[in-house]
Amino acid sequence: MPAIDRRDFLSAAACGAATLSLPLPGLANPGSCTMYGLIGKLRIAPGKRDAVVALLLDGTRDMPGCLSYIVALDPADPDAIWVTEAWDSQASHKASLGLPGVQRAIAQARPFIAGFGERFETAPVGGQGLATGAMRE
Questions:
Q1: Is 104 helix (H, G, I), strand (E, B) or coil?
Q2: Where are the beta strands (DSSP E) in 1-137?
Q3: Residue-level pLDDT, tens digit, the chain, 137 residues
Q4: d(Cα 129, Cα 68) in Å, to the nearest integer?
Q5: CB 25 within 8 A of CB 34
Q6: What Rg value do the Cα atoms of the chain yield, rounded?
Q7: Is residue 105 within 8 Å of 59, Cβ to Cβ?
Q8: How far apart are alpha carbons 17 and 11 in whole angstroms?
Q9: Residue 135: phi, psi to the nearest 5?
Q10: Strands across the sheet with 113-122, in order?
Q11: Could you tell me the domains of the chain?
Q12: C-alpha to C-alpha distance for 54 and 66, rounded to whole angstroms
């Protein structure tokens, strides 16, 4: 019998339980696996990382459908940050790009962004720290 790693098992179990509408502890959206996630690395001009972090944190408040928005420093690269997002849907993420606060943050940060690194789209199914507003009764 082939071995299954922990990540594959948990992902399959969560989606399977969601399909059957079985409650799982920490599952943010029972009944579907339609949440949208994005993890991306931004390369920042030298010495401007803190300014970009501040702009992103300030300009990304009150985004409808946003379940989690995390800006993190890359400990191995002083000129890089990671942004990890979880949304109730891909449509909510797309709509957020037109919000005035987000547009302002993008415009102000753009001169300091030297480029982009890895970018991953995901399909979150739940977990510790995901906004409680995503929970269904």
A1: helix
A2: 36-44, 66-73, 80-87, 113-122
A3: 445 444 443 443 334 333 333 343 444 444 455 899 999 999 999 999 999 999 999 988 889 999 999 999 999 999 999 999 999 999 999 999 999 999 999 999 999 999 999 999 999 998 887 765 444 33
A4: 8
A5: no
A6: 17
A7: yes
A8: 10
A9: -70, 135
A10: 66-73, 80-87, 36-44, 113-122
A11: 1-33 (no CATH), 35-126 (3.30.70.100)
A12: 18
Name the nearest CA neighbour of 135 among 51, 18, 43. Answer: 18
Owner of token pair 């449509």: 91
The answer to whether the CB of 137 falls within 8 A of the CB of 35 is no
- What is the C-alpha to C-alpha distance for residues 86 and 53, in angstroms, rounded to an integer? 18
| Cα–Cα nearest to 37, from 7, 70, 15 | 70
Q: Which two tokens stand for residue 97?
A: 């790009």
